[in-house]
Design a protein that fits this description.
about 450 residues, alpha/beta, 3-stranded antiparallel beta sheet, globular, binds S-adenosylmethionine, binds iron/sulfur cluster
């Protein structure tokens, strides 16, 4: 495994979209063609499957120094109401594009820290969204809660408006690691919020754990998972720490590169974590995720319903996903668009009736085919070009690029399909990279991506 890591551990995208953000064709993107792609997608899919909403709530009281998310650190809670007002205004701008009432299949509150907002304000936000929409027959509402500030009132208020899934950021329970990432957070807090969620009636409680953090060792990962065992969350995100300090400015510079585990140590942390989670009954889902067999994410994997979008993996695929809030990314299936990140600019644009996207990409026919292959690989660990509609001109070269991985036993290929082997699972991003012709036409500034393994 060591030599494979040396060979394949290169900077690479995480494929929450294809094309990946650095390859978006910004020149041919306009607000008008974005709106047209949303209208088209809505007309095709709203009544059949509904739409998804992602709402970005960017505030956090404290800065965790490992964090790669878009956030604004503040203790001033008076920012809550004006922000909610802007999000609802942005929603009204999308509503104006829709000829009929949107049906919400999936709604996710991410951040930042959604539980920075008071339960009353979160209720107002959700009720404001739903006052102009309809919930799908089966819908999935979820949010990210910080174990240090999620209260029983938060959980109850969001439950009352339809939330049944919550995930809590845990990362690692070791104090030295927690100090390095400036995130002191006790097991007791995580236990408390997990138990509250279950008492209230949440059907899926998730924990986020990270490996590869500064000062983290295999023993720390083991101890974190042993503690996790006593709570048995329904889902676990087991993320590889993405070290991209050059993008996030000084935020991640609370420790030195030499404080990070080596690539081999990091891979061993993943292997031990994966093995322990397997013993506990968790099934690995796509990349980075584990779920108990009783969780819908597992059923979705078994039934080929698993989908990946900017929120990660989901069992509730929709063609159209609208991202509301500063920095949010939307996906109309025909195109992607990202909102401005600056909070003042976001507010100013929506107040002036402008959908606040500042960049995006409209997919070409070839992009659409490659996107399907990459989704197949990320969700099902296999893809096929048996159907002529899944073929594209660069396919023979993509297969040539995979030859080394085939020889190393990471994939199996026949004349019309490719399967990632269990040995190849940690390298699924590398397999996707072979299909990513935009990456091969123009090699990226490698600093944009974290390492693949
Ligand atoms: C928005 S936070 C979760 C909610 C809340 N703010 C909290 O921290 O508990 C989303 C998750 O992204 C993951 N994350 C953030 N930065 C990361 C990084 N640099 N590498 C890997 N995962 C990261 C963490 O696991 C974190 O729990
Ligand atoms: S990990 Fe969560 S709480 Fe910490 S800075 Fe990032 S978004 Fe905020």
């Amino acid at each position: 495994m060591c030599s494979l890591i040396q060979k394949y551990n290169v900077p690479g995208p995480r494929y929450t979209s294809y094309p990946t953000v650095p390859y978006w064709d910004l020149d041919s993107f306009t607000g008008k063609n974005w709106e047209a792609s949303v209208k088209k997608s809505f007309a095709e899919s709203n009544s059949a499957e509904g739409i998804s909403l992602y709402i970005h709530l960017p505030f956090c009281e404290n800065m965790c120094t490992f964090c790669g998310c878009h956030k604004r650190i503040t203790k001033r809670h008076e920012v809550e109401l004006p922000y909610i007002k802007s999000v609802l205004k942005e929603w009204s701008l999308y509503l104006a594009l829709f000829p009929e009432t949107p049906i919400i299949k999936e709604l996710h509150l991410g951040g930042g820290t959604p539980t920075f907002f008071s339960p009353e304000n979160l209720t107002m936000l959700i009720e404001g969204i739903l006052s102009k929409a309809q919930k799908a027959e089966t819908y999935e509402f979820s949010f990210e809660g910080h174990p240090n500030n999620t209260t029983k009132e938060h959980l109850q208020a969001l439950y009352n408006v339809g939330f049944r899934r919550v995930s809590f950021g845990v990362q690692d329970y070791n104090e030295k690691v927690q100090k390095a990432i400036n995130r002191l957070q006790s097991f007791e807090n995580v236990k408390k919020v997990t138990e509250w969620a279950r008492e209230i009636g949440y059907t899926s409680v998730g924990h986020d754990i990270i490996f590869g953090l500064p000062f983290q060792t295999k023993e720390h990962v083991t101890k974190t998972i042993v503690k996790t065992k006593s709570l048995m969350p329904d889902r676990l995100a087991f993320y590889s720490y993405a070290h991209v300090p050059w993008i996030k400015g000084n935020g991640q510079r609370g420790y030195k590169d030499s404080d990070l585990p080596s690539a081999n140590d990091k891979r061993e942390q993943y292997e031990i974590g994966k093995t322990l989670l397997g013993y506990l009954g968790y099934k690995e889902i796509g990349m980075d995720h584990f779920a108990l067999e009783t969780d819908d994410l597992y059923a979705a994997t078994q039934e080929g319903r698993l989908h990946r979008n900017f929120m990660g993996y989901t069992a509730s695929k929709t063609q159209l996903m609208i991202g509301l809030g500063a920095s949010s990314i939307s996906d109309s299936w025909y195109g992607f668009a990202q909102n401005v990140k600056d909070l003042d600019e976001y507010k100013r644009l929506v107040e002036n009736d402008v959908i606040p996207v500042f960049k995006g990409h409209i997919l070409t026919t070839e992009d659409e085919i490659i996107r399907k292959h990459i989704l197949n690989l990320m969700c099902d660990l296999e893809t096929s070009w048996f159907n002529g509609q899944m073929q594209f001109s660069d396919l023979p070269f993509a297969l040539q690029r995979l030859e080394n991985m085939r020889k190393d036993g990471l994939i199996e290929i026949n004349s019309h399909q490719l399967k990632v082997t269990p040995k190849g699972r940690p390298f699924v991003r590398n397999v996707c990279m072979a299909f990513d012709i935009r990456l091969h036409k123009k090699m990226p500034d490698t600093r944009l991506f974290s390492m693949t393994v």
